[in-house]
Amino acid sequence: MPKTLKIESDASQRFQTTLGGQTVILRLYWNTVSASWFLDLYKPDGTAISTGRRLSTNTPVFAGVLVDFEGDLVPQSYSTPATELARDSWGTTHNLVYYATSESIY
After folding, report:
1. What are the b/e assignments for 37-63, b being 16+ CB within 10 Å?
2. Which of 55, 80, 94, 95 could covalently link to 37 via disulfide, CB atoms 3.0 to 4.6 Å apart?
3. 50 in a domain, yes or no?
4. What is the tally of structural domains in the chain?
5. Which range of residues forms the domain containing residue 32?
6. d(CA 16, CA 98)
7. Dihedral sign for Cα atoms in the order 35, 37, 40, 44
């Protein structure tokens, strides 16, 4: 079952969570130059799994990228029609959702 993560609209945030039995550290940050959210993913010991991934509405973060992570994260818009991911989108128009590899994203 997909897991919705509670993301704040703070410009930079870092937290540890368990996704699909994997403990990971997520870092999300807003880049004012590109007006975009980015995500870094780390193992609990601080080893980078993937860094600098630009987030885009309804697009799997790791699509087509080989990473040491089971599943994928998707910034999903719950507006119709879908809206772009903006600085204050988390919890208002978007959620970050984890899908295990065995789950259909759409």
Report:
1. bbbbbbeeeeeeebeebebebeebbbe
2. 55
3. yes
4. 1
5. 3-99
6. 14
7. positive
